Amino acid sequence: MATLLYKLGRLAFRRRGTMALLWVLIFIGAIFAAASAPPLPADTFTMPGTETQKAYDLLKDKFPTLSADGAKARVVVRAPEGKKLSDPGEKRKVDALVADLDRAPEVVSVVDPFEGQAVSKDGTTGYASVAYEVGATQVSPEAHEALTKAVEDARGSGLTVEMGGDAVPPSQTMGAGEIIGLAVSAVVLLITFGSLLAAGMPLVTAIMGVGVGICGIVTLGSTLGLSSTTSTLALMLGLAVGIDYALFILSRYRAEIAEGREREEAAGRAVGTAGSAVVFAGLTVVVALAGLAVVNVPMLTKMGLAGAATVVVAVLIAITLVPALLGFAPVKVLRRRDRAQQYGKPLSARQRRKAEKRAARQKPNLGTRWARLVLRHPVAILLVGVVGLGAVAVPAASLELGLPSEGTMAAETTQRKAYDMVSDSFGSGYNGPLMVTVEAKDAAAAAGRVSKQLGKEKGVVSVSPADANKSSDTAILNVMPSTGPADPKTEDLVKSLRDRAEGIEADTGTRVLVAGQTAMFIDFSETLNDALLPYLALVVGLAFLLLTLVFRSILVPLKAALGFLLSVAAALGAVVAVFQWGWLADVFGVDEPGPVMSTMPIFMIGVVFGLAMDYEAFLVTRMREAYTHGAHTHDAVVTGFQHGGRVVAAAALIMISVFSGFIMEDNDFIQMIGFGLAIAVLFDAFIVRMALVPALFALLGNSAWWMPKWLDRLLPNMDVEGARLSQLPAPELQLPQHRREAQPRFSK
User: What is the pTM of this model?
Assistant: First the structure.
């Protein structure tokens, strides 16, 4: 592997014009193909096998005009103080609002507050229910604009009007947090490399890789059914790993130059060694993303595969385009003082004074000093790290999963205002009604009997009259719970209703299905919860096999996997403490604590696992390289941190700064994603990889690289550490011309 990538790196450096032109043509071609492709299909959210999906499939067949899984909007109106909605003047305003809503594009039906018995007992508040013929992700800009205009016109008439539901136009503005995160990333790169060109190179290559990946998704979208939401994970991970991979190779190139390699030779060795780590780190990310297929939610499967494809593009760019760009500016990527030292350029008086001061200090870099500290006190550091992360992970035992509720949105959003108005005037359960389908030969009569039985359940406020289809073989009931959509009692009620429905079907043959948006959220959470352990086992197991190939060891992959589990558990514990329990809620701007988003653990495992294996691969492959060249494990650890500690710290800081930008968003669940990923990277990079890993190496010594002889013979030798590169002929190892004149040539 190392030899092949070494040759590829040298070829890309030597044929830099051709390689760069090739990628530019690929980039332009991808843009042209995306521009010529048909529009992306709308996202269809399905959950095969769940009761909600069965109910929706039934309604599509029996109520084709109902659009049961279409987008919904609830427009809540409140009369001015001292008046009621039934007053003639206020009723005319409500009628005008309903008429405007009914004329909006893609609207199937609008239920008037007075006709739908959706007026509060005091007569001051009511709501109109709007149903769309398309799903939430398919609602057109024209329909969004019409909904917004109708609400604004009603407000102008003197009514208090707010709207909720998945048909409400989403907010897509980039906040200041994301901009600050990107700015911090640029600063970290500049400080790390001390060169503007070197700092910009990872950003440019990452953006190009993401561009090719996203354009590929758009091009193949209509063929493979990839919606616009499919690109979300691809965008986030493509930027993350794209920056990391380019940073790793660029850093190794600078290290090879510092050792006196020729520029082309340095590029080849950088790709042969760091590039090998990049390839296998990329494979672990691909495994994690492709593993989302086990969740059995088509949307998540497509997101995972699209993200995996983007990571593959990032790997290819790192091992081909990065060395080609180094060929255009092989010296400019070095610090100014390093350029003078390496290539004999005269120093100014100021530079000479600084050089003399640095030479006088002659102390090892921070990575070396840290590694030696850990090696001196491995037991103490290991105990502090494990106990500390274990303590932070304790709240994860109380993890409650759910999906976003408008009741936890920022107080100033229209969705939250509408939610609060309904809760105050009707009860929190009216924000999450349940839809029950009844299938029988005489559905109307059967629905009447079912209604009486369901109404006896504790937690049911009311059951609406049945609405049967034309053939009278299917009917719909609306069940109003007493608790809100995110309340655990509502989930218990859904389970109780379904248990009773099974009994009804067993006794009478009447098929009863409990659905609705609240039930769908519950089914989705349960699906993800059931898939969490199989997904974790699949990802960790396959990655263990890959890392065994890379490091030729059993214990190194084992501790890598255990460290990852520890950091993820600690991150989930921190998320539970802040967003579910409300600790430090004011600091992070959490409006109302509630269940953790169902997708959070799955995405955290996938994203953090990929980044964690990046850091593990880059640090430990450098250690393995030193070990295979004869160094003791303790010395190999120091070598790994000497060359890789600064780079891994910079890569982690970049990711933390980008993810932390989302913490400043108004939406609690966006905050949750940003906080969870940022804290997970912090724990994994700085505690697990840079503290626990070297401590374990110190305790295990050379036995850390142990592998049974039979397994060593069975597994192919991938040579990720580049041991075979030392066998290259002497001309391949020559120093730059000005240094060859001052030093003896290498002997064969």
Answer: 0.78
Q: Distance between CA 144 and CA 169 in Å, rounded?
A: 6
**Can you state the angle between helices 517-551 and 263-290, rounded to 10 degrees?**
140
Torsions phi, psi for 457 (to 5 deg): -65, 140
- What whole-number percentage of the chain has pLDDT above 70? 85
CA gap 589, 409 in Å, rounded: 11
Alpha helices in 103-193 (DSSP H): 141-156, 176-193
Of 153, 239, 151, 246, nearest to 193 (Cα)? 246
Q: 605 and 702 in contact (C-beta within 8 Å)?
A: no
What is the tens place of the pLDDT at every residue in 611-656?
777 788 778 878 887 888 788 888 889 988 887 788 888 888 887 8
Biggest CA pair distance of the chain = 102
Distance CA 620, CA 553 (A): 11
Per-residue pLDDT, 391: 95
Mean pLDDT of the chain: 81
174: which residues sit within 8 A by CB, 6+ positions away?
Answer: none
Span 685-729, pLDDT tens digits: 899 999 999 999 999 888 888 888 888 888 777 666 666 666 565
Residue that is written with structure tokens 């060169």 in the block? 195
Q: Which amino acid is at 377?
A: H
Structure tokens at 364: 């090892």
Place of tokens 């299905």: 513
Helix (H) or strand (E) holding 127: strand 125-132
Within 10 angstroms of residue 356's Cβ, the number of other Cβ atoms is: 10
For 190, counting Cβ atoms within 10 Å of its Cβ (0-12 exposed, 13-18 middle, 19+ buried), the class is middle
- CA separation for the pair 251, 647 (Å, rounded): 7
User: What residue type is 658 in one-letter code?
Assistant: V
What are phi and psi for residue 566, nearest 5 degrees? Answer: -65, -45
CB contact at 8 A, 603 and 675: no
Tokens of 408: 């936890």
pLDDT at res. 176: 55
Q: How many other C-beta atoms lie within 10 A of the C-beta of residue 358?
A: 11
Instruction: Burial-class residue 359 by CB neighbours within 10 Å (0-12, 13-18, 19+).
Output: exposed
- C-alpha 437/C-alpha 69 separation (Å) is 13
CA 701 to chain CA mean position, Å:
36
Q: What are phi and psi of 650, to 5 degrees?
A: -65, -45
For residue 655, which of 194, 208, 242, 282 has the smallest C-alpha distance?
242
